[in-house]
Amino acid sequence: MKLKLVIKIALVILILTSFAAPAFAQMTHTAAYEFDGTIDFEKQAGHLCNTGAEIKQTIAGNGVMDKTQTVSMNTGKISMDDENNWVAGVTPLTVTTVWELCAPPKYVFNDTYWGGRLVEGEAVNLAGWSPANLYRRNGFLNSDYSKSLVEGLTDQIWAVQVQADPGFSGNLSQSGVAAHGPYGGFIKSDSDDDEAPGDDEFVFDRDDDWAIVVGDDFVGSYFDMEQHARTSMGTLRRYIDISSPFNHSYLYENMSIVGKSDVQETFSLMNIKPGADMPGDWWIDLF
User: Fold this and answer.
1) Which of 125, 165, 193, 268 would staple 234 via disulfide (CB 3.0–4.6 Å)?
2) What is the pTM of this model?
3) pLDDT tens for residues 85-107?
């Protein structure tokens, strides 16, 4: 009888704990590919602001290729580990990957009059412009009037293409994660509304110099990338166009190399840190 009672108590505790713990819906796809022949491959993962970023990849040409890939997605966040090694056959073999971020770009004024003076390419500063108007695909920036006044400085794109010539090798490995949680408004001292952000939102505190306040389960707003692109002979193309309205950072690169090339890099953009209860990558948090 005592054993049955202990089991019943344990089951009740387990049920209560499962209800108390936050649940994060997730989709994960892991695949290993071996190709030998003519390849026509298209893949998309994520859907822009629903998963923090949208990743598109194509592989086209003839040759022998080994590929492993893991993609994981949940609300506001996407990660991908991707390894591609190949030797082109009778035609070039090309791998192209594009990340489009949901995280908003820095905004600048168009060539127009504003407040009685001409402004051209001047930055829209968070401290001098309602943060509600700066959130991508939301509010003021969706109106035709606002589009005549301000524009995004960058496309929020990270793209790479490696093409190996016939008989030569190519490699593309990348490990990246992108996140951008929803914007919930800003705190006003004269407002009777609830000033705390939602569990998964971020807000601006106007009375604290536009400080950012996040909910406990806010997924964050950031983009991290480790990438290695190489070909023994062929064409390497890279396009990076990323900025941030939170810290006014800006990075642009547009290159095309014909011949032998090898590029290794790391990149990190931190706009807003995740909330206290948002689970992270435990193996990274150890170090």
Assistant:
1) 165
2) 0.80
3) 999 999 999 999 999 999 988 87
Whether residue 77 contacts residue 52, with contact meaning beta carbons closer than 8 Å, is answered with yes
Q: Exposure of 273 by Cβ count < 10 A (0-12 exposed, 13-18 middle, 19+ buried)?
A: middle
Which is nearest to 152 in space by CA: 192, 113, 123? 123
d(CA 44, CA 57): 6
pLDDT at 184 exceeding the cut of 70: yes
- Least confident range of 18-22, 167-171, 173-177: 18-22
Q: How many residues does this entry show for the chain?
A: 287
Strand residue runs (E) in 140-249: 150-152, 157-164, 169-180, 183-187, 202-205, 211-214, 221-243
72-78-80 Cα angle (round to 5): 60
C-alpha to C-alpha distance for 203 and 188, rounded to whole angstroms: 11
Q: Give the Cβ contact number of residue 21 at 10 Å.
A: 9
Render the burial of 175-191: b for 16+ CB within 10 Å, e for the rest. Answer: bbbbbbbbbbbbbeeee
Strand 183-187 vs strand 202-205: parallel, antiparallel, or unpaired?
parallel
- Give CA separation, 250 vs 123, 152, 153, in Å: 12, 12, 9
The DSSP line for 58-95 is EEEEEEEEEEEEEEEEETTEEEEEEEEEEEEEEEEEEE
The alpha helices in the chain, defined as continuous H runs, are: 2-20, 144-147, 282-285
Q: Is the predicted pLDDT of residue 165 greater than 50, yes or no?
A: yes
